[in-house]
Amino acid sequence: MATLDAAAKKQGKGWQPALLRHEVLLAVILVIALIFLAAQTDKFLTTGNLLNQGRLMAEVGLVALPMTLIIVTGGIDLSVGSILGLCAIVLGYSWKNLGVPLPLAMVMALGVGTLAGFANGWFITRVRVPPLIMTLATLAFYRGLAEGISQARSVRGYPDWFFQLGQGDVWGVPTQLWILAVAVVITAVILARTPFGRGLYAIGHNEVGARFSGIPVDRYKLIIYTFSGAMAGLAGVIFVSRVSTTRSDMGTGLELDVIAAVVLGGTSIFGGTGTMLGTVLGFIMIQLLKNGLALTGVKGDATIVVIGIVLILSILLTNFIQRRRSGNE
Amino acid sequence: MSTASLARGSSNALGAQLKRLVGGQEMILLLCILAIFLIVGSLNPRFIAERNLSSIFLGNAYVAVAAIGMSMVIISGNIDISVGSLIGVLATISGTLAVNGYPIIVAWLAPLLIGVLVTGFMGYLVAYLRMPSIVVSLGMLSILKGGLISVTSGAWISNLPAGYALAQLRPMGVPMPIWFMVGLTILAAWWMRYTAAGRSIYAVGGNAEAALLSGISPRRTVMMVFLIHGLFVGIASVLFATQLAVIQSTVPPNLELTIITASVVGGVSILGGAGTVIGSTLAAVLLAAIGSSLIFINLSPYWLRAVQGALILVTVLADLLRRRRQARRR
After folding, report:
1. Angstrom distance (rounded) from CA A119 to CA A121
2. Is there a domain that residue B18 lies in?
3. Which chain B residues have a beta carbon less than 8 Å from that of A306?
4. Which residues in chain B touch residue A305, judged by CB atoms under 8 angstroms apart?
5. Is some CB atom of chain B closer than 8 A to the CB atom of A263?
6. pLDDT digits over A256-293, tens only?
7. Nearest CA distance, B185 vs chain A (angstrom)
C-alpha cells in the first residue's frame, strides 16, 4: 500500500496540474458560452430559464456521476438508458397494473435498477465479460424487458404529490437539483478523498498492478456498476415525475449524453484520470449546448449531431494533449 | 461451413473430424434453424409457407451482408455501433439519387463509396489516432442519425424509377438478395481463411503485439477492416433500399443491435481473434426466423428485443466458458 501511495504521489505531480488546467480551460469555455448565449437572446439569462435547464440536466447529471467512476476504472456502461427505461416501466406497471402503492413502486423501481446494475457488475467481475459487450447486451435486454412488460402502452394519471420530485421546487430551486447537488458532493468526496476512490484510479491505471497491491478490484467494480444501475433507476423515477407519464422508450440515447459529458469533463476514456468537478462542468456544458441550440432555433435531432461531434473532438483533444505531454517527458 | 471444417480436418482422424463438425458453432446454428422451422412449422403450417419463408430470407439478407463486415470488425478487436444509422443514411442517399434522375448505376454505387468513406474515417481515428472504436462509433451514430432525421424528417421516398429495384431481380430464378448473401459469405469466408490479408485480421484481433512482432501492421489491418466493412455496409444498404417500392428515410430501429447480435451469435468471439462469417450469416437467418416465429406462436413482437439481448448474453457466456475450459486443459 505504501508503494502505491508513493507511486500515486509521484504520478500526482505529473498530472494533477494538467487536470487542473483542463478544468480551468473548461470553466473558461463555459463562461464564454454563457456570455455568448446571453448576448444572442435575452431569453437565456433569466432565472426561470436557468432553473428550468437545471431541471432538465438532473437525469444526465445523476447518471454521469457513477459513469465517471466506471470510466476512471477503464470500463464503460452503455446500458444506463435502458435501465432508466426499465425502471420507469417497473414504476408505472407495478402501480397501475399490479396495484402496488406508489411509494412502494418507487422503491421497487430503484431496486430493479440496482439489481440491473448488479447483474452487469456480477457478469463483468465473475465471468469476466468485457464491460463493453456486457452492457451492450443488457442495453438490448433491459430495453426489451421494458418493451415486453409494457407492451408499448404508456401509463398516466399519477397523483399530484408524485410530481413534487420532478416538477416541484424546494426553496425556489427544482427538487431534483437538490438531489443532484447532494449526489455530486458525496461522489466527489468518495472519488477524491477515500481509499476506495484512490483504488478506482489505480484500477484504471493498471488493473493487474492494483490487484497485486491488495486492492479488492472485483468488489470495487461490482460496487460501481451496481451504483450506476441504482442512479439510473433514480433518474428514471425523476424522469417519470418530470414528464408525468411512463413510456418504454424513455432514456433512449441517454448513454450518448452521459458519456459525452464525462469525456468532455476530462476523464480519459482509457481510465486512470478524471475528476467529479470535470464531469459536473461537462454535463453543464452539454445542457448549455442543447439549450443554446434550441434557443437559436436548431431542432432536437440536429442537437445530437453536435453532441456527437463534441464527443469525438473532445477525445481527439485529450488524446492530443496526452501525446504532447508524454512526448515532453 | 462444412467445406471449411472438412478442409481443416482432412489430416485429422475421422472421429475428431466428426466431433468438430457437430460441435462447431455453425452446426449448432444450423440445427437451431431447422428446429425452429420444424417446431413452429408444425404448430402453425403458415410459418413454412413460401410467402413467409421468402420474407424471412429475402427481407433479412441485407442484415447477413452487413454482419459479414461487422464480423471482421469484431474479429479485429473493434466494434461499430453506428452501422444501423449508416445503412439508413446510405439507403436514403441511394433513393434520393435515383428519384432525382441520376443513372441507376450511380444510385447503386454511391452508397458503396460513401460507406467506405465514412467507415474509413472511423477506421483512421481508431487505427492511427488510437481512439476506442466504441466511442468513435457512438459519436458517428449520433451524427448520422441526427443528421438524417433533421435533413429528411423521416419522409418516405417513393416513385423510384423502373429498373432501380436491384433486390427484386431474380437472375436464374434465384432472388438477388440470396445471390448476394450466399456469394459474399462464401467469398469473404474464403478470403479470411486462405489469404494472408484475411488471416492477419485474426492475428491482430488475437494478439496485436504478437502480430506486430511477426511483421503484420495492426494499424494497417484495422484500417483495411474498416474500409471493407464500409463496402459491405454499402451493399447491404442498396439491398435494403431496393427491396420495397418505397424507402423510409429514417434509421431502422435497433438495426445495429441485430447486426452485432448476428455476428456474436454466429460465433465471432467478442474478445476478438476468432469466428467465421458463415456463422454470422447463419445467425442472421436464425434471428430472422426467431423474430418471425414470435408472431406465429402468438407471442407479442414486443418481446423480440428481450429475446435478442438474452441470446447475445447466452452466446457470450458460452464463448467465455468454452475458452476458460480450453485454457484449463492446456
Report:
1. 5
2. no
3. 146
4. 142-143, 146-147, 150
5. yes
6. 889 988 988 888 888 888 889 889 988 998 888 888 87
7. 25
Residue with grid cell 494472408, as numbered in its chain: B196
CA distance A29 to A16: 20
Task: Find, among B262, B191, B200, B304, the residue nearest to B25 by Cα.
Answer: B262
Question: Which structural domain range is residue B108 located in?
Answer: 26-36+46-325
Residue A309 touches partner B, C-beta closer than 8 Å? yes
Does a structural domain hold residue B17?
A: no
User: A289-297 long-range CB contacts below 8 Å, 24 or more apart?
Assistant: A289/A33, A290/A56, A291/A37, A291/A44, A291/A49, A291/A53, A291/A56, A292/A33, A292/A36, A292/A37, A292/A40, A292/A44, A295/A37, A295/A40, A295/A41, A295/A43, A295/A44, A296/A40, A296/A41
Residue A153 belongs to some domain of the structure = yes
pLDDT digits (tens, 9 = 90+) for B198-248: 888 888 877 777 878 887 888 888 999 999 999 999 999 999 988 887 777
Nearest-CB residue to A305 (from B132, B146, B307): B146
Query: Does a structural domain hold residue A141?
Result: yes
**Smallest Cα distance from A300 to chain B, Å:** 8
Residue A201 belongs to a domain = yes
Low-confidence spans in chain A with pLDDT less than 50: 1-14, 329
Total structural domains in chain B?
1
Beta strands in chain A (DSSP E): 169-170, 173-174
pLDDT at A226: 96
Mean of pLDDT over chain B? 81
Residue A309 within any structural domain of the chain: no
| CATH code for the domain in which residue B272 is found | 1.10.3470
Residue among A144, A148, A305 minimizing CB distance to B142: A305
Which of A93, A141, A150, A319 should one mutate to test binding to chain B, selecting the residue with the greatest count of B CBs within 10 A?
A: A141
On whether residue B141 sits in a domain, the answer given is: yes
Query: What's the number of domains chain A is made of?
Result: 1
Of B79, B132, B309, the CB nearest to A269: B132
Instruction: Return d(Cα A156, Cα A162) in angstroms, integer.
Output: 12
Q: State the smallest CA–CA distance between residue B73 and chain A in angstroms.
A: 14
Which residues of chain A lie closer than 8 angstroms to B303, CB-CB? 144, 147-148
Q: What CA–CA distance (Å, rounded) separates A68 from A273? A: 10
CB hemisphere CA count around B166 (13 angstroms): 24
The verdict on residue B225 lying in a domain is yes
Burial of B186 (0-12, 13-18, 19+ CB in 10 A): middle
Question: Which residues constitute the domain of residue A132?
Answer: 56-252+268-274
Q: Which residues pair with A173 in a beta bridge?
A: A170
* Chain A, window 47-76: residues with a beta carbon less than 8 angstroms from a chain B beta carbon: 76
In A, minimum Cα distance to B153 occurs at A301
Query: Grid coordinates in use for B257?
Result: 443491435
Q: Using pLDDT thresholds of 50, 70 and 90, give the confidence band for residue B330.
A: low
